[in-house]
Automatic annotation (TrEMBL):
Pfam families named in the record: HlyIII
One GO MF term attached to the UniProt entry: metal ion binding
PANTHER family recorded: ADIPOR/PROGESTIN RECEPTOR-RELATED, MEMBRANE PROGESTIN RECEPTOR EPSILON
Cellular-component GO terms for this entry: membrane
Biological source species: Seriola lalandi dorsalis
Coarse class of the protein's main subcellular location: membrane
Membrane topology: Multi-pass membrane protein
Name of the protein this chain belongs to: Progestin and adipoQ receptor family member 9
Record: residues binding Zn(2+): H106, H287, H291
Family membership: Belongs to the ADIPOR family.
Keywords: Membrane, Metal-binding, Transmembrane, Transmembrane helix, Zinc
One GO BP annotation of this record: egg chorion assembly
Amino acid sequence: MLLNCGQPLPLLRHTDVPPRVIENFILTGYRFPNYSLRDCLLSAFRPTNETGNFWTHFLPVFIFSYYFVEVFGWEGAPHCDAPFFYPLWNYYIGVFCLLMASSMAHLLNSMSLVVREVCFFVDYGTISAYTVGSSLAYYYYIHPRAGIVETGGHNAPHEPAGAITSSYAIPEFSVFFETFYIPCACVVAIICVLSCCNTRQRWRKHRYVIRTLVFLLPFLVSSTPVFYRLLTRSPYSSTSSSFAASTSMPTFFYRHCLWLLVSAVFNISKFPERLAPGCFDIWGHSHQWFHCCTFLSILDELQMIKAEVRAILLSPTLLLPPATLSRLPGPTIASTYGVMFLLQTTIISIIVWFSWHANCIYGPQRDQLAKEHLNKHLKCH
């Protein structure tokens, strides 16, 4: 713990910390923004108003990983490094980075005001990257044709040009799914990062509403393959084992949406601390419930994707991985890891720009706090 003459530095009230650090209706449990890295790490085991925020996204990393690796033990599943699993691994990377960045942002944000800004810029970036990871999984496992090549001569060279798109119950969607879906997901993700980072430097009064509404857009774009499947008939025969495996997909999606809705309510309403300021400062405030609900939504999303993966693996008429003559090639390194790499590079560039701007604003305050802390430390000796 940060020491003051050999004693743990007491936690502070909202009146004793910079206005930038204050959270609505949270009155106590604040760490002053001059902790060292070691102090921040140790504060995970001390009841502060960030302790619950850390653990509610750090522990889920291990829970998610436990359910994720289950897929590779299924009968008939290819090896875990097969191209078929590239989208699933990108989805895992997105979720892992989201949960780790969120938990570390809440743990390390007391190092300085500048570090605080950078931590949450990274947090917003990983949320956006997660939405694209989800989009890749939806595209290759839930999309009506992407990467799934039917055997039995359907991909022969003399195949009619329109045969591939015949599987679309709504043919007008074929152009969007095949050409624009992934690029749209990436563009929307970048817009989300820019908007959320801006809320830390402007639009402060309505920042929680803006951030929540901003992330509604990638949800709508990413979920279009799921909406398509819900509005059309299953691609599997009703007597097949694949059909039985995929019947749980709508239930998991509805639960996924429900948890997202509940998390949005917590994030905007600031319930329950709004009703009793000071009573939920350490445990039980809205951001902890927000974290719990978002993780439950991710868990149901994982189960939904796994249901579709199992359906594909159980189908004897599908060829995995892609055939050369498929109009929609299956997952490749370029179309999965390459997409995520380009997106992450763009997001990092945005974070660097906003971080530089934050340093220009809060750097002088950081230096002043460091001097004050050094003088207090010298007085102890």
